[in-house]
Amino acid sequence: MLRSEPGVRESRAWRLTLGEGVQAAVSERELVHLVETPALLTVPTCPYFCQWVLVWHERLLPTIDLAAWLQGAPMVNGDRTLAGIVAYQSAPDAMPDYGALLLTKIPERLRVTDDLACALPEHPSGWRELAWSCFRQGEAALPILDLPHLFSGGLLNC
Amino acid sequence: MKTLPSMPTANLDQPRVLVTLDDRHWLLPQTEAYSLESLLDIDSDVQSTHSLGALALAGQWWPVYSLSGELALSATLPESRRLCLLLDNGADRFGLAADRVEMLKSAPTPFPLPACMAMPGSPVQALVQLETGLGYVTDTERLAAWLTAQMEDADNAEV
Questions:
Q1: What is the ipTM of this complex?
Q2: Which residue range forms the structural domain that includes residue A101?
Q3: Per-residue pLDDT tens for A102-149?
Q4: In a domain, A115, yes or no
């Protein structure tokens, strides 16, 4: 956490492009690695938005396509040339868990201050399931992803 | 698809048999692999619903099913199928047409299926990294429940 002006807390975040016109953010510490042209291994009988794993540091990471989940169907012409490896804690003091998110652009680093907080976008309607907060960046509202919820199966019953 | 009750946690470290269906690798407990039989021995006149026929062994008829590598139930036998693995866990008993069946000499470390991938009713318990690709760990109980759900879906689609 940084401080830019007295009384204004400043944080750093990553802007993630999940698909065409679909952007979200995670905190600076949550994005730990970027994989170009990820080799995705398909797992049958899994949900359409999370049917792959990615081998990373001898782990098999679940890989989520949030743009597909938001549109409610698999991406037909998906151009997912990147995977962002994210770290999250499922409980305070727990060891970090890892997962991957499919991306279409290299993430951008942002500075965020508390006074930029805003409401979640109304469209697509699924943001409430994916994000726990949101901030304004220029004209756009960037939802902050709730990674523990996403990777603990929170999207399976939506 | 109906939502199936969750299965009890099973021992993931037990010895496994590797079953190849198309280009997919499925791992089942060796203790549940009853025998390997020829597909030529399937009697197609003894049919239970959606099976290819049945095999007579040990005084019982064993229904034999054809599943794709992604576990889609099929009424036909793909050309690559070479043999029939009979599975028996004491409660469920059936045959599965397979391309190859191998006993694994060493058990790879299984990774439990991540929570975000665990669809209700999915037979996949865990994943393993094999030299030939990814392997999907399951067992006879889960496969039987999956088959039942597939058959119910097929019946409902016909109505």
A1: 0.90
A2: 2-151
A3: 999 999 999 999 899 999 998 888 999 999 999 999 888 999 999 999
A4: yes
